[in-house]
Amino acid sequence: MTNEMQELGRNARSAAKVLAQANAEMKNAALRAMAKAIRASQTIILAANAKDLEAAKTKDLKSSFVDRLTLNPARVEAMAKGLEDIATLKDPVGRVTEKWTQPNGMEISRISVPIGVIGIIFESRPNVTADAGGLCLKSGNAAILRGGTDGFLTSQAVTACLQQGLKEAGLPITAIQMVETTDRSAVGEMLKGLGGTIDLIVPRGGKSLVARVQSEARVPIFSHLEGICHVYVDKAADLEMAKSIVFNAKMRRTGVCGSAETILIDREASQFLKPIIRTLIDAGCEVRGDEAAQKADAQVRPASEEDWSTEYLDAIVTLGLTDGVDGAIAHIAKYGSQHTDSIVTQDQSTAEKFLAEVDSAIVLHNASTQFADGGEFGFGAEIGIATGKLHARGPVGVEQLTTFKYQIRGSGQIRPT
Amino acid sequence: MTNEMQELGRNARSAAKVLAQANAEMKNAALRAMAKAIRASQTIILAANAKDLEAAKTKDLKSSFVDRLTLNPARVEAMAKGLEDIATLKDPVGRVTEKWTQPNGMEISRISVPIGVIGIIFESRPNVTADAGGLCLKSGNAAILRGGTDGFLTSQAVTACLQQGLKEAGLPITAIQMVETTDRSAVGEMLKGLGGTIDLIVPRGGKSLVARVQSEARVPIFSHLEGICHVYVDKAADLEMAKSIVFNAKMRRTGVCGSAETILIDREASQFLKPIIRTLIDAGCEVRGDEAAQKADAQVRPASEEDWSTEYLDAIVTLGLTDGVDGAIAHIAKYGSQHTDSIVTQDQSTAEKFLAEVDSAIVLHNASTQFADGGEFGFGAEIGIATGKLHARGPVGVEQLTTFKYQIRGSGQIRPT
Fold first, then answer.
1. Which residue of B lies nearest to A222 if distances are taken between CA atoms?
2. To bridge A368 with a disulfide, which of A180, A248, A377, B49 should be the other Cys (CB 3.0-4.6 Å)?
3. Which residues 36-75 of B have a C-beta within 8 angstroms of A?
């Protein structure tokens, strides 16, 4: 490991000790000071961003990538506002989540504490610097940020504002650090935990980044590789509700992980096929379907086996019939990604079966899969969505960025032999 | 991967689906039937154990190892009783741990669900087969057990009883499977997750086994490598209480992970040195100390730097002065293992500082570190103690062997654009 990375790790670890004991007022003051610094530095941030964009132009980058990299005054303001919003959230640290007294009089409390040091590995979006830094701070964690090289100067300018906010609030500026080395081994070192320094890695970016992190990380990660989300329309569904939910789940925003990629329709309700397909096609969605779907509408293209497990993140959907709720549950177990799946039905017991048996982080009844979002859960901002099974599942907000310890208060208790 | 291991994984995955929906009565009936089968098969189990022991004699094994491998009627009965005890625990699956309604009317519930498939890798103790199998079943998880080769025949005989209990209760016998292959790559395959089948690994055994699992596992693990537990005796401690807690923390049982390995005494209370050292030495404990400890009692041997980070698991302790509670907190951060640490003091604010700042799974005030045990927490049986930071910290009982999902009940809600 390079000396630079070692020092980064040591600094983060000692900042984490201070943050763990910092009270809510201090952390919130820092968040507000960060927002102020970002607003005051708008010109500097935009100038840094312009340089990044100029360098980006010489490369053969996708326009969507360049768009995500691009800042403007509104996006800078959104970063500042985001930090102020995080300041208004309830402090997630120090909550007594359970408390009981043992027969011998010992009082056991389970109390929320920060996780420690969190490494965030992201691609081009400069707002991740502010969002992730702010969420880590609020939850008492030190952050080590490693952004893509294409957004380097922008991230650096934003990080300077975050550190100024920390300084003004009397917190160590090393609470939020950016990896400044261009050494390509830096990400690898982070994934190995920086010599025991990093407690958790959160990747923010496309599938190839997440796949690399998932395959190489030797520390716990909160991530989802893909969101192959399903809407199952049961025979007992209200058709109008089904059309509305299917349309929203697929088309509200097609590029988010909670957007639906597959629509399953109860074989006993094949009359739903045509109107649901029309709703999608009329909205400009390409429909790839099984034989029944193709028969129902001439514009439906044949779905390949691969389509059923493809996350399009685009206005394309796979659609077909299935054998009732059991067929849907089996289909989702086979092709899904344990992210978010929804059933539309007026039959309560069918709904409960789906909610119980689909093994996904989020299961919904009569609601759109696009609710898979920390804000929609009332968590405030989220650092991402996790599909792993342990600790955090679903939206990862500030509360999910804490762990706990047991505090035991006694009066001289010893354990009997 | 061998076909045998692949099949094991597939079987476990499909058993897990059934277990996740099995109700408490069914699981408890299986646990009681397992206990009955173990009692009925006592002769068979002891005969298998005798063969294992005979083979063990030809090897150069430690007597403590052979003792752990050895069964007798009382130990067989303890296995059966342990399963019945697990049956009496509250069902950890299906608990609604949080529930709220969003402004748009969606009702969000956070509900406990099984983790899925748990791999248990253990050494010679045959009771782990029954304990771990029973705890996994109670929490709705399928178990894949891989025991040490020295206890192979015993584990096989016990597993047969567990499967008989599953069968009698109408549950799939593949809910608890034993790795029967002698292929040495089996453990490695489990650590890699058996092709996505295993959700969690729990190692049960000595430090070398846990170290291997920690370094090779590509799936989450619940484990602790060692328990370097501290007792800090503050200047405001009641000396009699301090002696009692130090004695119990070190000497009640020296071989458990919650036994104290280091005693720190406030420099401003050096008069405590002599009586505390005497309490230990009179009980047959070897004391390795700093200069002050050596001066206080001629029988104290000098402690090396290594001693401060050594888990003796024996009647040996490292002891020395430290600069008050801040010195103790810093010492524990440097040498500890984030397992279990205790402060003895009558000063409430000093105690609160220690409880807040020591970053261990379990922190105690005026109580013995030997309370680090699921039973002592009121959890019932435990599968182990975890010192990782995520999901489970401290004792891992049936509740900690569950995860959760969000169930959302709506009435047609779609997400606004």
1. B390
2. A248
3. none
